[in-house]
Every structure is written in structure tokens, then in C-alpha cells.
Amino acid sequence: MSDDVVIRAENISKRYRISHLAGQGTLRDTMHHMARLAWRRLRWNSKLNREDFWALRDVNFEIKRGEVVGIIGRNGAGKSTLLKILSRITEPTTGRITLKGRVASLLEVGTGFHPELTGRDNIFLNGAILGMSRVEIRKKFDEIVAFAEVERFLDTPVKRYSSGMYVRLAFAVAAHLEPEILIVDEVLAVGDAQFQKKCLGKIQSVAQNDGRTVLFVSHQMNAVQRLCTRAIVMQNGMIAADGPAHLIINGYLKQSAPTTASRDLTGNDVGRRGTGVARFTHIELRNHEGRSSPEILRGEPVRISISVHATKRIPNATFGFSFVTADGVEVMGSTATDEGISHELSAGVHQFSCLVEPMILNPGRYYIRAAIFSSSEVFDHIDEMIGVDVLSAASDQAHAPGNHWVGHVYLSYNWKHEHHSP
Amino acid sequence: MSSPAGEPPALVIEAGRTERHYWADLWRYRELLGFLAWRDIKVRYQQTLLGAAWALVQPLASVAIFTFVFGRLARMPSGNEPYFLVVMAGQLAWQLFANTLGNTSGSLVGNSHLIAKVYFPRLAVPLSTVAVALVDFAILLGLYVIALAWTGTVPTFRALLLPLFVILTLLLALGAGLWLAALTVRFRDFRIVVPFLLQIGVFATPVGYRTDFLPNWQALLSLNPMTGVIDAYRWCLLGPGTAFQWHSLSLSLAWTLMLVVTGVWYFRRTERSFADII
Q1: A66 and A160 assigned to the same domain
Q2: pLDDT for B5-24, tens place per residue?
Q3: Which residues on B lie below 8 Å from A131 (Cβ)?
Q4: CA of A278: how far to CAs of A371, A377, B208, in Å?
Q5: Residue-level pLDDT at B157
Q6: What pLDDT, on the 0 to 100 scale, is given for residue B24?
Q7: A188 and A319, same domain (yes or no)
Q8: In B, which residues are within 8 Å of A181 by CB distance?
Q9: CATH classification of the domain holding A214
Q10: pLDDT-derived band of residue A71, with 50, 70 and 90 as boundaries?
Q11: Minimal Cβ distance to A98: which of B2, B10, B187
Q12: What residue ranges of chain B have pLDDT lower than 50?
């Protein structure tokens, strides 16, 4: 292996066995199952009631020393399985991984924290679980406490901590690990915005200043963009794309939600969940002139039309949508229940349409997220259905010279400037 | 740790690869083992009013009941010692065994959040539970010493050999416990089976009576691996009149060897899939 490569994965596959027997896992079920298998063997019937699920299929990659790699992809694409194999929590079904250097993985914040123990005790316990030695923890203790900002509560059981304090302490311990290879899974999804920023900064400094290799799984594209030099897209257990982070992220967003005026949604299943009793089939955007277009002028109305196919009668369906930024922030949205509307859907195709007036988003790229649900179940939900480009209106130049937009939303502001002479 | 000079050898992960450095890894994780043990001990007595006194209440109640049932009602022979000393020596061995076995078999499921999220040699989890049982053992042993002084019994030099038999008890309990811990990951039934087995075990084992006055039953009783252990404890802890039971002890040793070897083998074989099915 070349000197620079610290992680090499060759033909990694991971199979899970999904058993279709109800209630698998008790001794009785297994005995019953074994008896049935034996009976089938006796009768030369080899068809087993089992299904293989390949969480990873033939994954190959190499990561060099000092690279910061973002792994992106939908839920169920195999990202977490890959991290679990790299962290040695579970083993691959086939293939081979060669790792050079000490690996620390942070698949969850606060693994092994015990609610009854004090903050001080938990720092030592959690540090040991993450692979630090007692000496190392003692050396870093003050730094950890300062980073977590919990000095006053060190001798309080963590069960009395606020969730914010808990997360801060947990991340602080992990952030002071000093492995050659750091594997991080979506830990930034917790904590408040300010702390998330601090964590990102910490990971960034680990990567840049100390030259460590970092593998980072996230759904937050802006975090990946900020931290990573390289990105890998996982799809259905395989690597779909691999390359410089900014190129890969743009391509990923375009592919998962193309910017087109209308889109057929029947075959689309990325970022999609729900029972499927009703399913989205089509989406279309119309601009202020009533023409089909993905480009909307700020300040003008836009009409969103979405078709839904109901497989049976649904007595109380609610439809909702929102505008989402590339970083996954929901800026604004509406559900029909906000307007006091709940629909009775008969089996068949229905069309919902909503006039958004006026478009108050600042220029930029947004995505439309939509869901149809009842009080008890989600029938269909798509994270990013389609991309929307909001363009600046002709009159905007006066308001925002140089296209410098503050925030995502535009309102009309009335500025006054008065001069008071002394 | 960022010095590229002292580079560690590359680690290779492959399906079914038995890691050559597993035992070295376990040694590297000895501090984690210590921390897990320390956590269990600390958590056990946190927020209890009587703290360590609870470690006394339960075995003392058992000793009182056994003394009454076997010593008073059944009038079993006790030798030269007061009956409750006979029972206490038995209780020392049985409690250590039962606690270790019970803690070990539930340990993996009880730490499932760790197993699903972090790598470490999984053996550290069942091994760390031994500490709690040892603390309880030490407390009861202290009480036994007080009882000896109170009754004016002077222990023989044989008491110095007790640590050997303590290790034997732990190995026996661990061997069985490794089997049960690994099986509990797959079949939660064993969470119900283990307490049930221990409940029966306390009567199938000569905790409340001594075997050396029951020559007709000795052969049958010594099929139970704990019989030899308890006999050995009594030989160490009671007066010089107690005979050494070679027969039952050799059976205990054979059981222990068999259980430890197969227990470690089964545990290591299934360990790799713990995170997938726990």
C-alpha cells in the first residue's frame, strides 16, 4: 500500500438477512423455524423463507492521509453501514479493508454516558469507551470542561443536565480524541446552532491544523461543503460519485432534485418515505405569466401544482409543502390544515395547487419538499421534489446593489436616516 | 499521537478473519474494563439509602433461613462448628457464583448501546461484571471473619488457599456466563431462564448443608460443579475436622475447564455478529 493511503477498501459488501418469520428472535421461534427447515430438507424443498439485503455492494475507495471526506446519500444508502465496518463494529460479508493508524469513531454523541454518574465521572468513562487512556483524559480534562462550558455542574449527575449541556459535554470528550483517522456520523444534527458551529470549527481545526484524516457523514450539505475537500455519494449500497466536494454536492443536488418546470415523480424514490397509500405523481411550477417554468421572479406570484394518486378512499388527508435551502433549512411552507382544510380523497388521481403570492424568498436555489399525511400516518413524503431558482426582480438592483442578500427572505424595509446636529 | 515515525502496523479487516491481536487488544482495553467495573459498582449504590449494607441484607437473610430450615427443622449435622458458620461458608461460594453468572449473562444486552456504537473486544463487558460480585463477596467475607471472632473459632492455615478457590468459582461462573451472555444476545429467553436456573441451583447445591455427612448422596451431589467448590470453601474456612473432597473437586475442575474453553470459543465465534443482531 502506498505510503499516503491510510484507508483502502476493496470490494466491500455487507449482507443482512431479513427473515420473514414473524417474531424471530425467541427460542421458540427458532426451534419452530429449525424444525420447519429440517422438514423442508427432508422433502427436498430448498426454498427458504429468507431474503438477502445487501446494504453495501462492491465498494472500493482509497483515502489519503490528511484528506477530509464527506459521505453523502439518502437514508438507507449504506453510509452508516460503511462507517460501522470501518469502525470494526460489524464485519463485512466480503472484501477487505486496510487501515493505517489509530481509528476513533464517533457514531453517536455520548455513547456510554451513564445518567446516574456525574459529569466528571462521565468524562472518564466516555473517554475510555472512545479509546483514550486515563493519562490522556486527565491531561485534557480541563480543556474538555472548558469546551463544554459545564464547570459549575461537574459534580452533578448528568441526568439533571439540560439536553444542551449533555450534548456539549459529550461532544467535548469526543473532540479531544487524537486519532490519526476520525470517523464522524451525523453528530452535528444535535445541539443548538451556536454549538454546531463550534463543533464544525473543532472538526475543521482537527483536519486542517493537525493533518488528520476525517470521514464525515452528514445530510447537511453546507457542513460537508465547508469541511470536506472530497465527497463520496452513496446510493443503494454503492458509490455513485466520488470527487472534489463542491462538484459532487452540486451534482448530487441537481440529480436528486433537477431544476425543471415539471417532473414526473412516479419513479423517484430518493429521500422518499411513507406508506404509499397515496403517492405523489407529478409536480409543476408556473410563473407569474402562467407559463411553466422553474425560474421565479422575486416579488411575483408562483403556482405550485402537485398530483397525488390515492390507492383507496382516504377520509382525512392533509397536504403540505415547504421551500428548503440547499443546506436543508426549511424557510417557509404551508399545510392545508393551516387553512383549516382536510380533504377526503376518493381512490384515483387528485391535483392540489397552491398560489404563493408574492414570492418573498431572496434570489438563490431552493428545493420544494412536500408531504401528504393524516393524523396517524404519512402517506408520502419527498425531501427534495424539484429545484426552484428565484431570480432577482428588475427593481431589485436599487435595493441590493451587487446582489448582496441578507438572509433568505425579502420584506419591504423602510429606512430613514436623520441627522441631528450637536 | 501524530508522529508518523512510530507507525503502527496496518490493520486489516476481512470477513471471518480471526484477529491475531485479539488478546493484545483486550489487554490494551484493560482500562475500559476497569472503568466499566467502576461504573457498575458506583451506579449500584448510588441513590440507595443503605448503600453497601444491602450487600449484607440479602445473604444474611439466606443464611438465617438455611440455618433455621436445615439446622433446626431438618436437624442436619454440622460437625464441630455452629450451623450458621457452615451455611455462611456455603453462601460465600454460592453468592459469588450466582452474582457473577447472573451479571455476566445479562451484561451484553445491558450494554447493547455500547456494542452497537463502539468497537472494543466484547469480552471486556462480561469480564468487567466480575468486579461487582467480588465487592459483595468481600463484604460477606468481612462479616464471616467477624462471626469467626465472635464464636471464638480459629481458622486453620488452609484459609490461605481460599483465593485459589475464589478464582475457581469465578472461572466456573464466567465459563457458563459467556455461553449465556452470547445466547442472550440472540435469544432473550435466557433473561428469564438464568434467574430460574439460579433459583433451582441454590437447592440443588449444598449451600445449606454439608456433604461430608451424607455419604449416600455424595456421588449424585458432586455431579453439580458447585458442590466441589463449596466443599473446598468449607475445607478452607471451617475447623480442622473438615475433610478434603477430592472427588467432587476434580469434577468441578473438569466442568470449569470445559465451560471456560467452550464458552470463550462460542463467545468469540458469535462476537462478530453481536452488533448486527443485538
Answers
A1: yes
A2: 445 567 888 876 666 678 88
A3: 32, 120
A4: 10, 11, 68
A5: 86
A6: 82
A7: no
A8: none
A9: 3.40.50.300
A10: very high
A11: B10
A12: 1-6
At residue A39 the predicted structure's pLDDT band, cuts being 50, 70 and 90, is low
Type of residue numbered B68 = F
Burial A164-183 (b: 16+ CB within 10 A, else e): ebbbbbbbbbbbbbebbbbb
For residue B228, give its domain range.
Answer: 22-277
Q: Please tell me the distance in Å from A415's CA to the nearest CA on chain B.
A: 54
8 Å CB contact between B155 and B148: yes
* For B112, nearest residue in chain A (alpha carbons): A112
Q: Is residue A44 part of a domain?
A: no
Whether residue A358 has a cis bond before it, omega within 30° of 0: yes
Strands A348-356 and A302-310: antiparallel
Q: Any residues with CB less than 8 A from the CB of A305 and at least 6 apart, and which?
A: A283, A284, A285, A286, A351, A352, A353
Interchain CB distance below 8 Å, B116 and A212: no
Mean pLDDT of chain B: 87
Taking the C-alpha atoms of residue B217 and residue B205, their distance in angstroms, rounded to an integer, is: 12
Query: Which run of H or E residues covers position B86?
Result: helix B83-110
Q: What Rg value do the Cα atoms of chain B yield, rounded?
A: 21
Residue B12: closest CA among chain A residues belongs to which residue? A98
CATH number at residue A307: 2.70.50.60
Residues A238, A273, single domain; the answer is no
Q: Is residue A307 part of a domain?
A: yes
pLDDT score recorded for residue A131: 84
Amino acid at A232: I
Which residue in the set A99, A111, A131 is minimally distant from B113, CB to CB?
A111
**Rounded distance, CA B230 to CA A298, Å?**
86
| Number of domains into which chain B is organized | 1
| Collapsed DSSP state (helix, strand, coil) of residue B28 | helix
Average pLDDT over residues A341-365: 85
The answer, yes or no, to whether ipTM is higher than 0.85 is no
Q: What is the pLDDT of residue A45?
A: 46
Of A7-21, A51-65, B113-127, which range is least confident? Answer: A7-21
Whether residue A135 is found in the same domain as residue A203: yes
Residues A240 and A172 in one domain: yes
**B117/A133 CB distance under 8 A:** no
